[in-house]
Amino acid sequence: FPWTFGQQADHNWYLSAEATTVLPEINGYSVLDGLGTLSTHQALDMGHDRLGGIRGAQRPKCDSGRAEYAAERAGTGLADDCHGVWVAATASELELGADPGVEVTGDDVGLYVGIDGAQDRDNKTLRGGAYLGYLHGVYWTTGANSGNLAMDPARVDMDAPVAGLYGSSQWNNGTFIDMVLRGQRLRANVST
After folding, report:
1. What is the pTM of this model?
2. CA 15 to CA 12: how far, in whole Å?
3. pLDDT digits 0-9 by tens, 24-56
4. Do residues 180 and 168 lie in contact, with contact meaning Cβ atoms separated by under 8 Å?
5. What residues does 183 pair with on adjacent strands?
6. Fewer CB within 10 Å: C terminus or N terminus of the chain?
7. Which helix (H) or strand (E) holds 30?
């Protein structure tokens, strides 16, 4: 076979080629799994961030109108009446070196819209919601890699529609349990 897959002396696993040159776009394909994992985490974080946005501050008094809560992590105030529509925009930049693997840089942007609500019970608050979103990323590989292969630069365009559900139960003593379900369809186009 022209390819070998095995563990090297540094205890990392490598896919190696017997030839010194390979398909020019192979480095673009080699970063797809990592980029897909990053986009999955971003979509999951959207649900967890929504659930945790008021945790650690005063408990929301749903059904009592709007109230101001301190969002300690963000350093700003969060107004939340526990019901309604929300919109979030995201942007991130990525720079990964070539050891091990392939060097990749790029950025992505996302837009999410959701709806949530909450219900107070005697000893707990139930909170839940749903969201839809769209994530678009553009990444570049330089051709630099941890092997001795000559590779051309490649461009990776990724698009992913996202849908998710989230729910939480928080008891009066501060104990909580969260659940986030998310689905996305990731599409990528690799070009040189």
Report:
1. 0.68
2. 10
3. 667 777 777 788 888 877 777 777 777 776 554
4. no
5. 163
6. N
7. helix 26-30
The residue type of 68 is E
Q: Which of 120, 45, 129, 134 is nearest to 85 (CA)?
A: 129
Q: How many CB atoms within 10 Å of residue 153?
A: 15
Predicted local confidence at residue 67, as pLDDT: 42
Burial (0-12, 13-18, 19+ Cβ within 10 Å), 18: exposed
Eight-state DSSP code of residue 74? T
Asked if 166 and 50 count as a contact pair (C-beta separation under 8 A), the reply is yes
Q: How far apart are CA 28 and CA 156, in angstroms?
A: 6
- Give the integer Cα–Cα distance in Å for 159 and 93: 16
Nearest to 128 by CA among 47, 73, 53: 47
Pairwise CA distance, residues 104 & 144, whole Å:
9
Range with the poorest average pLDDT among 14-18, 73-77, 104-108: 73-77
Helix/strand/coil for 34: helix
How many CA atoms does the CB half-sphere of 128 hold within 13 Å? Answer: 7
| Dist. CA 183–CA 132, nearest whole Å | 10
State the Cα–Cα distance between residues 1 and 14, nearest whole angstrom: 15
